[in-house]
Amino acid sequence: MNARLVVVAVGVGLSVAGCNVAGSRLPDPHLSGRDAQYMALVPTADVGAAYERYLVDFKTSEPPGSIVVDTKNKFLYFVEGGGKAIRYGVATGQEAYGWTGRATIGGMQEWPRWIPPKDMLERWPHLQPTADAGGLPGGPDNPLGSRALYLHEGGKDTLYRIHGTNEPDKIGQSVSSGCIRMRDIDAIDLYNRVKLGANVVVI
Question: According to its UniProt record, which residues of this chain constitute the active site (predicted)?
Fold first, then answer.
């Protein structure tokens, strides 16, 4: 999902724990209804201890409720305040499609419909029938996974997303077209915590 590349020098005052597991492992959110039904069908993968969900020490100037994405180390932090954050493992954009900058959460969807964007159709024409059909409905086979957070800049959709994935084995890698992918269970957990309009910093 490519859009205008915006590179912003961000003064985040960031303290990153790297690949060390130094924090408290957090339990999975309770699932019911459609979440329980679909999550029983989504692919699973062992992402390794470093990319599980932890409450960690985290120093940043960003306010509580913000999201900070460390693309180099493949971590997403949800800022809790008090020097703490919840850390999730993520997959980020390939070098040619990486995105950095500041945004806000301009939209939030559960089990979102996926419509291949124009630049993706140019690279992979075999997806055109999916676009012509109005996209792929939300579900366990959808590449956006369980949740999508839509990143906006200046009130406009950047076309970048923080979303779940039907390829959890790719967590910890640079594989996407610029979006930030999370395990579906982590995308649900983050969705339950974040608010519309929250700040997002991708570094």
Answer: 163 (proton donor/acceptor), 179 (nucleophile)
